[in-house]
Amino acid sequence: MSTRKIDDQQQSCKNCGVRDGLNFTVSDSLWAKVIPTRLLNRVVCLACFDKFAARRGVDYHRHLSALYFAGCQARFEFRVVRRAKAVMR
Fold first, then answer.
1. Which of 17, 30, 32, 52 has its CA 20 to 30 A from that of 58?
2. Could you report the per-residue pLDDT of 68-81, keeping only the tens digit for each?
3. d(Cα 1, Cα 15) in Å, to the nearest integer?
4. Which H or E element spans position 66?
5. Could you give the CA distance from residue 56 to residue 11 in angstroms, rounded to a whole number?
6. 3 state SS of 57
7. Cα–Cα distance, 22 to 50 (Å, whole number)
8. Residues 77 and 21 sit within 8 Å (Cβ to Cβ)
9. pLDDT of residue 30
10. What is the mean pLDDT of residues 1-6?
11. Is the pTM of this model over 0.85?
12. Which residues are bridge partners to 76 per DSSP?
């Protein structure tokens, strides 16, 4: 029987090299708008995705559908919560 560390399953960002354990989901069309061509089919961490989106003026917060964390001892799925817009009176 072989064993595998969870760390071995975490992929590193091909832009900055970090292994943050975070996985997130956005549509393919949004990914193509945000990510530079050289990284389109590569792993990109959420921090780099955020920086690329800011540089391109893309507001992605409404399109983030899932966020996961895989650590050494536990795994978590985060719920994406959006604040309601303030109503001006």
1. 17
2. 988 888 888 887 77
3. 35
4. strand 66-70
5. 25
6. coil
7. 13
8. no
9. 95
10. 39
11. no
12. 69
